[in-house]
Amino acid sequence: MEKGELFGIIGPDGAGKTTLFRIIATLILADSGTASVDGFDVVRDYKELRKRIGYMPGRFSLYQDLTVEENLSFFAAVFGTTIREGITIVVSTPYMDEANLCDRIALIKGGRFLQIDTPQNIRQGFSAPLWAVRSEKMHRLLDDVRAFPGVDNCYAFGETHHFTACEGFDADGLRSYLEGLGHTAVCLQPAKATIEDCYMLLAKQ
Length: 205
Hints:
With 205 residues, this protein is an alpha+beta fold. The chain is built from seven helices and ten strands.
């Protein structure tokens, strides 16, 4: 993490975000390995480190009548600093769309980082052909698309399903296949990768 940046740790519930935060905030000990923040070991130098960092847990600690910035200012004041002093802010969230608000992000799964980069670079690095599909029978559609030759990975994505395709994928063939299975109002089109798509691709590798 660079000084003054907004760094996001992004991953679903259970990916290891909270555990990592508690380790670097010197609140719990790691089972193995070492960690340091600003050159200070989180175990050996925990007293000094606690003078330099502040940990603000999830929403249950927030004052609901304050804005996000006001909450940050309050907790910064508690730790003897301000949010105007170029401090580094590290946030964690399971919501992939919030990643775009960060300067850089780390995608995490099972306590391990899958990729660290800017949101833009991660999206631009998505190399697989990506498609979006929907029909009137969305629940059935997921399994039916997964069974079609040339479909590599299919998952629910808001009001559509997204899937990556292998070389030689036949879009017209998929449309005909789905209509033959009784799907109506089939809409199939190329999609632009989001952070969530990138995470799904990296997590599968």
